[in-house]
Amino acid sequence: MCRKILNRSFRVCPARCPLFGCALLDMKWDNQYIRQTFLRPETQSRLGIEGYDAGAKILPDFFKTVHPSPGQKKEDIC
């Protein structure tokens, strides 16, 4: 899928973590390509796939505590 907004274009793919939705494959901004390491954190040397996956496991639990499901009180979770 390719989308174009003014003179900016980018392509997206499903993110490694479904919670994030889409990830950018590449992006061109004012005729300059943005490096993939800036667009997809799992490609960064300091984070890597293991770090990305570890963070992706933590986030759903965090959002459940911040935004409890309907009918569930926040006090019941904490």
What topology does this entry show?
Blueprint: E1 2-5, E2 8-14, E3 22-29, E4 32-34, H1 36-39, H2 48-66, H3 74-77
Antiparallel strand pairs: 1-2, 2-3, 3-4
- Output the number of helix runs: 3
The biggest sheet, with number of strands, parallel, antiparallel or mixed sense and barrel status, is: 4 strands, antiparallel
Q: What's the mean pLDDT score?
A: 78
Outline the low-pLDDT stretches: none
Structural class, by secondary structure, is alpha+beta
Fraction in helix: 25-40%
Radius of gyration: 17 Å
**Beta strand count:** 4
What is the end-to-end distance? 41 Å
**In order across it, which strands form the biggest sheet?**
1-2-3-4
What number of domains?
A: 1
- Give me the strand/helix succession: EEEEHHH
Overall spatial form? elongated
* Relative strand content: 25-35%
